[in-house]
Automatic annotation (TrEMBL):
Keywords: Cell cycle, Cell division, Cytoplasm, Septation. GO terms for biological process: cell division. PANTHER family: CELL DIVISION PROTEIN ZAPA (PTHR34981:SF1). It holds the Pfam family ZapA. Its main location: cytoplasm. Homodimer. Interacts with FtsZ. This is Cell division protein ZapA. Coiled coil: none annotated. Transmembrane segments: none annotated.
């Protein structure tokens, strides 16, 4: 099994530069970084007294919350599809 070629890209998130290495395309990594940046800025605007670490943790918590909700929705849709095929 061949390893995918690694992609290395520097992105800016909430005013800081990060080098991201992964197997996804540069455009995908850039899109992820932009979404993280957007969420961090949204939290920062609503809570201007928070430091960077707290903003990052709240961003992670909100993102995982959204991910879990989407996972639940996918499972429900799979069950509905099973019943329809049934």
């Amino acid at each position: 099994m061949q390893d995918k070629e690694k992609t290395r890209i520097t992105v800016e998130i909430h005013g800081h530069h990060y080098t991201i290495v992964g197997t996804e395309s540069k455009s995908h990594i850039r899109e992820v970084a932009n979404m993280v940046d957007e969420k961090m800025r949204e939290i920062s605007v609503k809570n201007p007294m928070l430091d960077l670490n707290k903003i990052a943790v709240l961003t992670a918590v909100n993102t995982i919350h959204e991910y879990l909700k989407l996972q639940e929705e996918v499972e429900q849709l799979k069950e509905e599809l099973k019943k329809l095929k049934g």
